[in-house]
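During the reporting period the student researcher (J.K.) took over the structure-prediction task from the postdoctoral fellow and processed the backlog of single-chain submissions. One of the processed entries is reproduced below for the supervisory committee.
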Amino acid sequence: MTDLTLSKALKIITSALAKGKELGLKPLAVVVLDAGGHVKAFQRQDGASMMRFEIASGKAYGALAVGVGSRWLNAQAESRPHFLEGLSAVSGGKIVPVPGGVLVKDRKGAIIGAVGITGDTSDNDELAAIAGIEAAGFTADAG
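J.K. obtained the following C-alpha cells:
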C-alpha cells in the first residue's frame, strides 16, 4: 500500500490548482483527507469565498464515508433523497453530496484518502481533483 504522505498531498493540491488555472476556473479551495477522514493538507486560492474549507471537506468526507466518489452521492440525492437525508443526519451534516469529492486509490486499488475541491462548477471542481490525484501518481475515483 502506498501512503498518502504530506508531500504527495501537496503535489495533489498544486497540480489541481494548476489545472484550475489552465482551465480558467474561479478561485478554488482544495482539501486532501487521509483514509480516516483527517485533514492532510488544505489550500484556498486568493479570492475564494468563505465556507470553501467546509464545502471541500464535505465533498471529500462524503466520498470516504460511502467508499465512492461524490458524483455517486449526487445521483443518490436525486433518486433517493431519503437516503441522503439519513446519511446527512448520521454524519452530523458533514457530507456535501455533489461532484468534486474524489477518492484517492493506490496502485492496488485501496482507498488511501480523498480530495475535495470547490470554487467553480462541481464538474470543473471534479476535473481539477482528478488531475491533481493523477499527477501525484494515484488513481482517482469520482463515483
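The committee noted the following: The mean pLDDT is 96.
J.K. will present the remaining backlog at the next meeting.
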